[in-house]
Amino acid sequence: MMLTASTRLLTVRVWRPTFFVKSPGVWCPPGRPFSTYCPLPQLPVPPLKHTLERYLLALQPLVTPEELEQTREIVREFSRPYSIGSKLQDRLERRSRRTENWLTDWWLQNAYLECRLPLAVHSNPAVVLPKQNYNDWKGQLRFAAKLIAGVLDFKSEVDRQVLPTGSIGVSQKPMDINSYAIPGKCDVLNFIVGEDGSCGVIYEQSSAEGPPIATILDHVLDYCKDPDTIRTPMIPLPLPKKLYFYITPEIKRDIEHAKQNLDILVNDLDISCFTYRNFGKNFPKQHGISPDSFVQMALQLAYFRMYKELCATCESVSLRNFHLGRSDVIRSSSSDSLEFVISMDDPKKEINQKRAALGKAIDCHSAYTDMQALKGLAIDRHLLGLKLQAIEEGLSVPEIFMDTSFAVATHWRLSTGQVAARADCVMCFGPMVPDGYGVWYNPLEDHINFSVSAFNCCEETNAESFSKSLEIALSDMQNLVLQTSGQAA
């Protein structure tokens, strides 16, 4: 479970004073030129040919050869000169010239504000924070008070512009601190503090993805560790006054109905949180391997061992290096990752062949990350933009988006993400599809924190079983690297 059971829980709510309807322009202090404050480039519109070629590559490990050939024909028709695809690309490029970010408003509406699923489980992430060193209500209140002060200290640093450059997306500062979601006031950032020292965070993520939240949490937890050096002078304050709320029978029924629905959601969610202690991010680095790519290939191996196939796998990647950037997708399943997971358990393969297959799969993932996703050239948000451009103009949805292969390619049975933080914490998130998994991880120096989620209503998935498969995959890959470098464990 996300939080250790506690006899008393205190919810600390951080209020947001600005009505959040759409993503604002970059916040800039009065009198300071925009150009001197935010040098971030505009998010590019990828070339249509680039996206469609990589879309076909992404389909290779996921669909049959017959389905792939059928999709190739659809793609050829979509991309020919003067076709609907070419027209939508031109209009998308025109939108890019007329807006600060061609994607952000669409993504905000499509991913968050228009979704009718409950925010709990389906949208709002949670973060399990390190257990604190107290075990009574006095310690609980002291920690909660200092935690609030830490959030306000972060807000002060944002206002005074003393945060290190790049520590949080410039365009997201006002959204993290000064926004709340439609239809009105709500608690976007909730800190939960238990009497037994357990604590965590739940937040409404239309305002920001995980990395900016991790930055806030690192700051707040560092602030809470510092001893109080300066105390505010004591001033007379009015005595606390208990508030009484008049709840009508109708409101009471609505509350009970909401509680029942939430209980159903909670009971259906299967979460396994664990710490992998054989190694952390230092081990892959010592062998010239990207820690993130190493973990992603372990996820591919764990899934393949359980289901004997690969699935569409999305890894969230930040676009904060672009003006008003939010997120895109790294596709971790590839022909190279399929070759690796097959060879890993093939007794006919030599150990050096397995190591070569691992290296090739890792290089493929790293190249997608560095050369495409981080440069704003990943395929998924571009495909979404083309589809939404057609819908916005009242056109029929193009055949490429009605194709069976597209449904397979966007049925994210593995929804994953790295939310790296200095604190020894981990983020939790529900699966994106009923028969899928949500896997988030925080790689630290000598260990990795994982959370794995699934739905109990699906007989095909089990969070604990996947966690065990993932632990074995990580250890097997570690041994493979050590054996081929002459350092067998």
UniProtKB/TrEMBL annotation:
GO terms for biological process: carnitine metabolic process, CoA-linked. GO terms for molecular function: carnitine O-acetyltransferase activity. One of its GO terms (cellular component) is peroxisome. It comes from the Eukaryota. Residues 43-180, 189-471 form the Choline/carnitine acyltransferase domain. InterPro entries: Carn_acyl_trans (IPR000542), CAT-like_dom_sf (IPR023213), Cho/carn_acyl_trans (IPR039551), Cho/carn_acyl_trans_2 (IPR042231). Pfam families: Carn_acyltransf. Keywords: Acyltransferase, Transferase. Belongs to the carnitine/choline acetyltransferase family. This is Choline/carnitine acyltransferase domain-containing protein.
